[in-house]
Amino acid sequence: MSNPTPEKSGWQGAKPFQLLATVLVGCLLYFVLPRFAPVPDAKLFAGSAGAKAASAKKDKAPAKPAGDKTVAPAPADKAAKVPAAAPVADKAVKKPAPSAKELAAAQIEAEVKAKVEAGLKAKADAETKVKAEADAKAKAAAEKLRQEDWVRALHLFAIFVATILGIILRPLPMGAVAIIGVGLTAITGTLSIGDSLSGFSEKTLWLIIVAFMFARGFIKTGLGTRIAYFFMKLLGRRTLGLAYGLAATEFCLAPVVPSNTARTAGIIMPIMRSLARAYGSNPGDGTERKMGAYLTMTCFNIDLIVSAMFLTAMAANPMAQKFAADFGITITWSSWFVAAIVPGLVGLLVIPYVFYKLYKPEITETPEAVEMATSKLREMGRLSMSEWLMTGVFAIVLLLWVFGDKYLGMDGTTAALLGLGLLLLTGVLHWTDVLAEHNAWDVLIWTGGLIMMAGFLNKLGMIPWFSKVVGASMAGHGWIFGFLVLCLTYFYAHYFFASMTAHVGAMYAAFLGVSITLGAPPMLAALVLCFFSNLHASMTHYGTGPAAAMFGMGYVPIGTWWRLGFIISLVNIAIWVFVGGAWWKVLGLW
User: How high is the pLDDT of residue 80?
Assistant: First the structure.
């Protein structure tokens, strides 16, 4: 009889110190901010009350003139017409002096008229008073709601900051931190439970979930590996050619592999490491510079470029798309791709060569790589039925992403769901594969939570308030100068983030709002911040998942990683600002 596996003893919950720091910051902001942050002026912070008051005024506006015209002028006209007939009659026929009875009747008639006029005046005054009181009550209610919105926005901001901090410090996995944050928005009464869960219904979020399933299909069928070996065989006679071959592989896989960690660490890194070791380049024995160090830095930065080129290439991209939609900016899969294709391709050509000059490998000729790729492809044999099916479904979905919205009225998420259905029907994927893709469901939780919180910060008026305040502080400068300053600030703020998702969730919406306030073209501002939300991770060894995986191989020292990362950040900014700027001018984005 086998002994049961002993359970782990001791605390197995959240990491205590990270949890304590997260809770302290959240509680401090939640309870202190409402006490020391006064409600801003109504011109800067309208809240939801501002919209309600504006719509109420529009509804009441047409009723006022009609009431004034029908009540007051009518008796005045009658009073003017009655005496007007008397002088004419006096000139024509001289009447005898009225008798006492007639005088009494006239007096009674005058008194009745006076009472009627007084009654009408009193009624008009009463109606005016009622309207004034109603307007005063409406204004008071709107002001009260505005103040409540400010407090709710501060409470939501506190929960949002604590959630972002928790994602950075990781007392628990990212999804666990996010679901606790979602729960707190409802538990504290900051939002209703329906509002708290609304982020999980966003269609762009489901686009990325389905893309994870496509990635599983590429890996399961072996098609992703086959593509990598194909480009290695085609371009791998030199080390620089190997880098371009891996770049071409990334470019082909990026549209349907939404996790840059899965794409780089799951497909590219094993092949890259095998190549380096085949040429005697191993970490820790002084041979890193033969090939492994160069390929590590190049492959990592290539991954960031292709992540910026496709809406579905990085998990946080659809979140940025949703934040842009909150400002009325519609970014589709094809519009993102068209805007990114020129600076992206230039980056894919330039960056491997820049690293080749700055961090040149000792081995530059690699004829054995072609033989290795040929051997691997021979072992894999011809394309299997599942690979052909995967290729066909991928082609259909890609065409629908590019042309479906324009010609068929089919948005990207609908096309993705169609593709997933085809993969399930053809047996390329089974339902157990969908259930086993835990990374997708993890993304659903933390992305949905952050989308919800950032969206309601916008609806409650906090992000528009921040945009107005910062925009006012930069008044006097042209939008180009102001927008460049904001973009550089947004880019280099990533030194303080260990996650591209956390960075997008914390800063994208606010910086987009400020950019629009400064006068930057909305679509241009939204797209540039989307692209920078991927490129800024080049600078550190912790800025995104692939950085930790690639750095962990041990080929590149930390100082070298940071130094080269900063240089490449300047190169990327130059490419996307100057080459991208010219291309976006051609597209009419500014």
Answer: 43
Closest of 434, 455, 527 to residue 201, by C-alpha: 455
Distance, in Å, from the CA atom of 219 to the CA atom of 514, rounded to the nearest integer, reads: 42
Residue with tokens 């609806």: 459
Distance from C-alpha of 261 to C-alpha of 569, rounded to nearest angstrom: 20
pLDDT tens for 95-121 read 667 777 777 777 888 878 888 888 888
User: Could you give the angle at which helices 100-169 and 63-71 cross, rounded to 10 degrees?
Assistant: 170
Q: How far is CA 113 from the centre of its chain?
A: 69
- Residue whose token pair is 């529009």: 58
> Which of 265, 267, 291, 269 is CA-nearest to residue 278?
291
CA separation for the pair 168, 453 (Å, rounded): 17
* 398 vs 323 pLDDT, higher one: 323
Q: Is the pTM of this model over 0.85?
A: no
pLDDT tens-digit readout, 486-533: 999 899 988 877 778 878 887 888 889 889 988 899 999 999 999 999
Collapsed DSSP state (helix, strand, coil) of residue 583: helix
Q: What is the DSSP letter of 290?
A: G
Q: Which residues sit opposite 238 in a β-bridge?
A: 365
Question: Chain-centre distance of CA 120, in angstroms?
Answer: 59
CA–CA distance, 48 with 18 (Å, rounded to integer): 35
How far does Cα 470 stand from its chain's mean position? Answer: 20
Q: How far is CA 460 from CA 10, 127, 469, 581, in A?
A: 43, 35, 16, 34
Calculated CA dihedral for residues 548, 549, 554, 559, nearest 10 degrees: -30
